[in-house]
Amino acid sequence: MHSVGQKNQMETTMNYLETFKRARALLVSLAFGLVAAAAAAGPWPERPIKIVVSSAAGGGPDILARQIAQKLSSAVGQPVIVENKIGANGIIAVSEVARSAPDGYTLLYTGASSTALNQALRTDLPFDVQRDLQPVTQIGVGANYLVVAADMPIADMDQFVRYAKARPQELAYASWGVGSPGHLTMAAIENQAGIQLRHIPYKSIPQMLQDLQAGTVKVAVVDPVSSLPFIRSGSIKVVSAIGTVKGPLLPEVRTMNEQGYRFDANGWHGVFVAARTPEAIVVRLNHEINAILKDADMRARLTQLNIGSSTPTSPSDFQKILQSDIQFWSQVVTTNHIAAN
């Protein structure tokens, strides 16, 4: 006969063995489930990939996205289709990809304006950039320009600041709309330099450039591509490149940082996928697209669009850039009480 103590010890041992068996059965079941899920998913890619572009066909972003699509198709052995989804400053395109299946078959090609600036500016977005998108890689970095009319006695940032301080609220600047990168950029410059200008929002960049050339408006923030003919002809003057990089077609134009006015946010293009896309697919896309960016013809295309080639970025590197830009622009929006909803 067993004593009470021995009986209790045997029961405890049996309970441990039973618990161990159940745990082992659960682990085996989970392992088979993971294997089955991986088998069901299959190798990537098994079908065509779509790149959603947030701008119109024929523009700079579209041109770059199509060149990437062609080379990516060769690299992965599947067709890569470009689909333009324009409207609402990129919100339509970003929304589609944010809601897409996280399987690596729907990519987003867009810029800082549609992601970081929108996230900082708007409270009515149907998505959260940091929650719903997974950055893949940055494509290129470009500088917008602070420009003035040709008859303005201004050639650099110091002269611009002195001129504006002597005429508070008298000097007006143009941008391509309330909440546009030009609007937020000038607000940031005003804060840093301690100047006050009146904002004149335009509905289109061509009209803004025409009025700047005619002297109807004296100051503007302009994009690095459509402004080039006006700058090269001398019909408008460049004061500074905005950001930390120079446009490759205007390397002589100094950045704000070089002139003693700190401005760390850049314009950029980038590729994203839906959040929760498997890490292996994100890493593969990052590897393939970064390899494409090293091609001589790709670098030449970026130069033609006055966009600097960015250092190859990892998904985590690009995520940090996105977070930093959202923080930068959020502070500008809050400080200046800017709303675009």
Automatic annotation (TrEMBL):
<dbReference type="InterPro" id="IPR042100">
    <property type="entry name" value="Bug_dom1"/>
</dbReference>
<protein>
    <submittedName>
        <fullName>ABC transporter substrate-binding protein</fullName>
    </submittedName>
</protein>
<dbReference type="Pfam" id="PF03401">
    <property type="entry name" value="TctC"/>
</dbReference>
<dbReference type="InterPro" id="IPR005064">
    <property type="entry name" value="BUG"/>
</dbReference>
<keyword id="KW-0732">Signal</keyword>
<comment type="similarity">
    <text>Belongs to the UPF0065 (bug) family.</text>
</comment>
<feature type="signal peptide">
    <location>
        <begin position="1"/>
        <end position="40"/>
    </location>
</feature>
